[in-house]
Amino acid sequence: MYFLRTAGPLLYVLLNSLATFGQTAALRGEVRSPEGRPLAYASVGLVGTAYGGTTDEEGAFLLSGLPTGSHRLRISMLGYLAHEQPVELQGGAEVSLGPIELEPTQWALQEVVVTGTMKETFVRDSPVKVEVITSRFLERNSSPTSLVESISLVNGVQEVVSCGVCFTNSISINGLPGAYTAILVDGAPMFGNLASVYGLNGIPASLIERLEVIKGPSSTLYGSEAVAGVINVITKDPAEAP
To answer: Which long-range contacts (CB under 8 A, 24 or more apart) does 137-141 make?
Structure first.
């Protein structure tokens, strides 16, 4: 009888441990900028483990199959300060962290742009919101022949099929057709309704230093073609990158 009384609790603990052994957890959240803009393709992972992923186009992430216990979540993205916070994961449970805000780095705020002001100015001092796509970003995310596909990674900018015969794509900003987007090369406009179609498709990514994108009307500076926005292609200096 004594054996049964002592073995019973031990057996219960053993069975309970076996039931919870092997259970995993999930982690959900959103990554945003200080302005509330979703940050797509940010890296998300548990420090010291191989578990991780990236945010989708809406800035959301879902990590599943995670080990239980205490961990540290790390979120990083080019142009923003890395964010870390502790998380407690329990077997069979999904933890929702809600919106997580990343602060831009000082380097990103001090980047010099020319689009939106007609002169060189810092991003933080620009009267309009200018998004910058660097050549490093293009090299990591674009195919050798698709500059249009790289630009479409910017939120609010879509790649659309403009010609069903030649299968040429164009850029649509805020849902407006490509004809309403002004295309500039080193600040010089490419005139014509087909500029957003054949202009970008004819520029190899290897020549690009950076892309400056304005989403929204800019007709005062760039004319009637800039109703949807402006894309300024800044090419590399031949003396530095022949």
So the answer is: 137/78, 138/205, 138/208, 138/211, 139/205, 141/41
Q: Quick one: tokens of 167?
A: 């299968």
What is the residue type of 237?
D
Contact 175, 119 (CB under 8 A): no
Cut 0.70: pTM above it: no
| Every domain range in the chain assigned CATH 2.170.130.10 | 110-235
pLDDT digits (tens, 9 = 90+) for 130-175: 777 777 776 666 554 566 766 776 777 777 766 666 666 777 787 7
Architecture of domain 2-101: Sandwich (2.60)
Name 113's bridge partners.
121
Greater pLDDT, 176 or 152: 176
Our CA angle for 197, 199, 203, nearest 5°, is 125
Hey, what CATH class is 110-235 in?
A: mainly beta
Residues 148, 36: Cα–Cα separation, whole Å: 26
Measured between alpha carbons, how far is 26 from 63 in angstroms, rounded to an integer? 5
CA distance 73 to 148: 33
* β-pair type (229-235, 181-185): parallel
Range(s) for CATH 2.60.40.1120 in the chain? 2-101
Q: How far is CA 174 from CA 141, 155, 188, in A?
A: 22, 9, 23
44-54 tens-digit pLDDT: 999 888 898 89
- When pLDDT is cut at 50, 70 and 90, the band that residue 96 belongs to is very high
